[in-house]
Amino acid sequence: MFTTQSSSKSTLAEILSCVLLLFLMSQISIPLQHVPITLQSLGVMLIGLKFSRRTAFYSVLTYLSLGAAGLPIFADFSGGYHIFLGPTGGYLVGFLAAVIVMSKVNELLNSKCGPLMRNSLSCLAGTAMIYICGVSWLAIYVGLKQAAMVGFLPFILSGLVKVFLLVAALQYLKK
Fold this sequence. Notes:
The chain is mainly alpha-helical.
């Protein structure tokens, strides 16, 4: 009984820490038309790499739920369910899809390659999920071509830099 209760407290602490991380990362923002550049995706990748599938999933779900309930925890201290109905809603939903995909990629590649390659591919797969969900939803507002132009192309370089920095930092910290 004690172990289960202790484990539950530990998992809850991890989830709350992840929610706080996502909140803080979302406030580091460069506003652009339709979709701002934030560090949320970096937080999502870190959570997807360092926590179990269950903890990662519930962390992102809790973050999204709190934001949907109106807590100002999304970019620029915004919140409310209407954010999910706006142009950036798909990216937020993509965060949840990303941690699921990252976990699966890690699981599939666990015995096939080293941590550097596994983490890199996992982050790239998670980032791809965020873009697929985000651009698909944004296309409802501005059309697919324009969604790709404003919701994907400006983020390619910054997305790759985030993946590289995160994976490099994790490798360095491992030593």
